[in-house]
Every structure is written in structure tokens, then in C-alpha cells.
């Protein structure tokens, strides 16, 4: 019991230090960038007395270490300030746009996992043959082709020419406000409400940008799965299983892939986190009203409260995913529990 308590305490301390480091980085970014937060709030035509009053209200007259402590206190209370662009609290804005990014990244990750892991396994099993070459070529293209170009070509082909998918945005205008938001994820909310017309319209909108993002996730997951499987297939326990006459499919999918499950958790978690933060260009191309589009518009309008709030949100997601990965490690690998 004592050992378990010390492990939990050490892990909680690690999370706290990591989060504190994230806050320190965002705080320094807000002070280093050549943007005056007072001018962003009052405008460049405000009289000097108004400028000075707002400067004092924001605590910018205090020493840097006091400003940092006030910053930590505000963030822990969920106060990221007010967005200059929308005139609403930044946390409210993030709560409005983040479900769209979460929906897009989740569907993309599912595509990457469902297709990427079998492709990586096939590349390892048939190393040096055409399935392996195909997996490596697809991975190379996935790493090389710019995402905005792939998105534009996808819209041109599958939406404009073939009409297989819906256009930019999350929903057609006709279906907006037909479902009461519960989670903010339209696919989930419409399914819970039984509004299947809305569900399929939302699916038609999300599938193309999710497939574009999922292709990049697929390339990464397939490549890492192939490397991990090649390492496992060279181990002595695989040779022993073959000598004993264990079926090849069982060796590959049960033994080799089973031993790859733990490191694959990290691969999938990092891929998921990367999609949550790296969907800026995709959201811009597809007019997807998510965190990436919100962050882009905030940067273009020098809205630093919104920029830093979105950065903290993404960093917190990464910390949470690492925490979840560690928990799954301990569930799947007895050596980690020991």
C-alpha cells in the first residue's frame, strides 16, 4: 500500500511539474512576442490615462515573478482572459470550438489505427515483397505531400467532380440547430437524438477532412507498427512458437502484435495529440470551425489571450494523453506494474 501511494504521489508530482512548465512557456511567450496586450485591449487611440489604468488592471506594472503567480492563479481558476476578437471569455470560445476539432481528430485517428496497424503488420510479415514496398511508398507519400494541397485536391475530386462527399463546414445550413448540443460532437449528439439525417449529413462533411488527416496518421502508425513487428518477429520466442507448430496467423496477430501493443499505445496517443494540434491547415481548407481555425484567426488578429489559451488547451491534452498511456501501460504490461 505504501509503495502504491508513493507511486501515485510521484506520478501526480510529475504531472504537476509538467503542467507548471507548460504555464511557464506560455507565460514567457506572452511576454516575449512584440504585441502590447494593453493596446490590443484598448486600441491605439486610447488616451494615456486609460492605457495606464488598463495596464495596472492587467497587472503589467508588477514584477515578472508576481505576474507569473497571478497567471497561474487565473489559469487554475479557468480564467484565460477575454478574447479581443470575439469579446467573450477565451475558455468559453475554446469550449465552443474544441468539440469540432475533437470530432475531426477522433475520426481521423480511427482511420489511421484501423488501416495503419494491419498495413504495418503486412509490411513486416512480407518484408522485401510488394506489400512491404506498398506500405513504405504510402508512408513516404504521407510524409511528403503538403496537407493543404491534398485537401484541395480532395475537395476538387470527391466534392466538386464526383459529388461523393459534402462540402466544407460541419453541416449544411438546412440541418443546423436541429439537434440540441450535448457533447458538441455532432455525430454523437445526432445519434443520441435519433436524428439520422443530421448524422449522415455530418458524416458526409467530416469524412473527407478526416480521411486527409487520417492518411498522415496512417503513414506514421503503419511505419512504426512495421518497425516494432520486425523487431518482435526476430525474437527467439517467435522461432520457438514456429518450431512447436503454432499457426502463423496466431504467431503474428497474437504473440508478435500482442508484444507490440504497449509501445503502440504511445504511437497512437502521440498521433492523436498531433492531430488535435496540427489540424490548422486542414480546418482552414475545409472551413472547419475548430480549434485550429480559431487559433489561426487569433494569431492573425494578435489576440494573445486566445492564442495562449488554445496553446494551454493543446498542451493539457498532450499531458492527459501521456497520463492515459501510462495507465494503459500498467494494465497491459505486468512488468510496468512491478
UniProtKB/TrEMBL annotation:
Pfam families: BPD_transp_1, BPD_transp_1_N. It is a multi-pass membrane protein. The chain crosses the membrane at residues 104-125, 137-160, 198-222, 256-275, 306-329. Keywords: Cell membrane, Membrane, Transmembrane, Transmembrane helix, Transport. Residues 98-329 form the ABC transmembrane type-1 domain. It is found in: Cell membrane. Gene3D superfamilies: MetI-like. PROSITE patterns: ABC_TM1. PANTHER family: D,D-DIPEPTIDE TRANSPORT SYSTEM PERMEASE PROTEIN DDPB-RELATED, DIPEPTIDE TRANSPORT SYSTEM PERMEASE PROTEIN DPPB-RELATED. It comes from Benzoatithermus flavus. Belongs to the binding-protein-dependent transport system permease family. InterPro entries: BPD_transp_1_N, MetI-like, MetI-like_sf. Coiled coil: none annotated. This is ABC transporter permease.
Amino acid at each position: 500500500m505504501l509503495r502504491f501511494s508513493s507511486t501515485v504521489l510521484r506520478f501526480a508530482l510529475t504531472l504537476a511539474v509538467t503542467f507548471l512548465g507548460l504555464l511557464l512557456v506560455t507565460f514567457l511567450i506572452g511576454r516575449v512576442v512584440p504585441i502590447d496586450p494593453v493596446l490590443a485591449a484598448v486600441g491605439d487611440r486610447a488616451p494615456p490615462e486609460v492605457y495606464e489604468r488598463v495596464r495596472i488592471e492587467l497587472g503589467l506594472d508588477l514584477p515578472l515573478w508576481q505576474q507569473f503567480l497571478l497567471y497561474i492563479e487565473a489559469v487554475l481558476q479557468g480564467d484565460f482572459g477575454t478574447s479581443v476578437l470575439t469579446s467573450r471569455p477565451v475558455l468559453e470560445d475554446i469550449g465552443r470550438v474544441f468539440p469540432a476539432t475533437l470530432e475531426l481528430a477522433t475520426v481521423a485517428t480511427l482511420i489511421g489505427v484501423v488501416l495503419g496497424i494491419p498495413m504495418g503488420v503486412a509490411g513486416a510479415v512480407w518484408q522485401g515483397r510488394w506489400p512491404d514496398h506498398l506500405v513504405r511508398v504510402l508512408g513516404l507519400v504521407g510524409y511528403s505531400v503538403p496537407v493543404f494541397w491534398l485537401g484541395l485536391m480532395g475537395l476538387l475530386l470527391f466534392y466538386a467532380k464526383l459529388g461523393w462527399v459534402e462540402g466544407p463546414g460541419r453541416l449544411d445550413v438546412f440541418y443546423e440547430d436541429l439537434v440540441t448540443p450535448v457533447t458538441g460532437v455532432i455525430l454523437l449528439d445526432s445519434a443520441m437524438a435519433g436524428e439520422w439525417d443530421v448524422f449522415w449529413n455530418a458524416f458526409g462533411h467530416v469524412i473527407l477532412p478526416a480521411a486527409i488527416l487520417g492518411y498522415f496518421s496512417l503513414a506514421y502508425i503503419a511505419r512504426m507498427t512495421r518497425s516494432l513487428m520486425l523487431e518482435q518477429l526476430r525474437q527467439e520466442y517467435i522461432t520457438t512458437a514456429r518450431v512447436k507448430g503454432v499457426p502463423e496467423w496466431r504467431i503474428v496477430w497474437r504473440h508478435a502484435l500482442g508484444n507490440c501493443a504497449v509501445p503502440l499505445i504511445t504511437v497512437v496517443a502521440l498521433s492523436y495529440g498531433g492531430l488535435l494540434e496540427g489540424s490548422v491547415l486542414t480546418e482552414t481548407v475545409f472551413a472547419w470551425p475548430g480549434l485550429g481555425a480559431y487559433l489561426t484567426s487569433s494569431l492573425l488578429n494578435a489576440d494573445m489571450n486566445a492564442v495562449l489559451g488554445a496553446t494551454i488547451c493543446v498542451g493539457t491534452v498532450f499531458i492527459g494523453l501521456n497520463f492515459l498511456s501510462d495507465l494503459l501501460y500498467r494494465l497491459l504490461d505486468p512488468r510496468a506494474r512491478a
